[in-house]
# Entry
Amino acid sequence: MNPQEPWPADAEEATALQSRLRRSVTRTGPAAHEIQRLAGLDVTYSKNDDRLIAAVVVLDAATLEVQDVVVHEDRPRFPYLPGLFSFRELPPLLAALEKLDHLPDLLMCDGHGLAHPRRFGLACHLGVTTRIPTIGVAKQALIGEYAEPGPRRGDRSPLTDKGEVLGTVLRTADHVKPVFVSIGHMISLEDACQVTLNSTPRYRISEPIRLADQASRRTLKSRQSHPTG
DNA sequence: GCGACAG
DNA sequence: ATCTTGTCGC
# Structure
């Protein structure tokens, strides 16, 4: 974890920490063509007990070939509260990242970045903490207004709040619900959309995140108590 | 006050 | 998010 920053004890402290950390988010970083290794991150929770599995899947950015998969079992240390999602998922995701032999060039996470009430969603928190370029790709909006984008893959429309552009509502496949792309850290919104499209060749959800979701679910399922007799 | 509310 | 199989459609 980030030893420089005290971990918040409650929602009020967490909110204050977000407002402070948001200032370190940047919109520039490596050019898109310099990104060779993409990582998708996701967390699956057990309903039976209080365990969770965080997963990171690393893919070759050009071929989308899987290069590495790591998982980490943990327990939630913070409740789920809209707007404070990162305090729940950041600790297990960082622990999983530490299991990688080589850090990836870019992180894609299941949630928002700047498209957040205080402009500091999970993707921003993950990027600022790791100092790795990060993109947020969410399945649902948390804040903002938008027009329905066109029906085809690549069609998009801006996600805005009080005139401020927070992200892009991006159609990743024909006639499928769009996803919500926003900057996490060290990348432009345009590059974030390009990387998202490039890593989403077939399904609605980008391949790195989709595979991380599968890995975390598979792992949790395989570790559930198997009833005998 | 009411509704909305990433995963 | 979690529980949960098949089934309809491209």
